Fold this protein.
Amino acid sequence: MQSSGPLVLRLKKADLEAVIKHSRAEFPKEACGLLSGKFITENSALTAVVEKVYMMRNVEGSTVSYFMEPKEQFMAMKEMRVEGMELVGIYHSHPGVPAYPSQKDVSLAFYPDAAYLIVSLMAQAVDFRAFQIIDAEIRGIEIQIIGDRGRGGDA
Amino acid sequence: MAVIVRIPTPLQRLTQGKEEIEGRPGSIMDLINDLDGKYPGIGERISEGGKIRRFVNVYVNEEDIRFLKAEETEVKDGDVVSIIPAIAGGI
């Protein structure tokens, strides 16, 4: 699934809002979850198209780290497989630091195909950024937000 | 029949892109050692010193082996073993 060009993360506005809402609800603890969908190639760019958000439990219940509840993770991944979907993204929140992968985020990034979406709540205005982490190398990637009435705008 | 082993995407480059491979019945560690013989390098990604790595979850059918007999859990023909890297991070 790895391509030479950068990955693009595409998600519906409502899904992004759900991720932000979850991050705020868990504050000051870290929230985490999975993004299910499909990888498509469009204009020669590999795009991770999100179809569903899975809010997961952070078993560490910590303000500075997360560990996704293994059984929930297993069941979510099984459901994706049954539905013909793939794990296209992984999100977590940074309650007190910027939306950039930490050293631990990088050392524990075991899914090089996935887009890593990070929501920062450190400032009053929420910030969110996406990355691909391949062989400990961090690449910022584009996020496309799809409005409720179709592609593109901030509907 | 054999044990069916589900390989996560990040380890599929060690299994020639195969998502499912066949394994040998026995304990989980026997199975992993056997897989490492067929797909060199995979054992080290899953385990270290005879123990499953902390950030790897192993399921037999739908049960986490930590709630069974861990590395000593026995698997038989027809069982499905899923190897799933944990999702974790932090500062």
User: Anything to note?
Assistant: Residues 8-141 of chain A form a domain with the Cytidine Deaminase; domain 2 fold (CATH 3.40.140.10). Helices of chain A lie at 13-26, 70-82, 103-107.
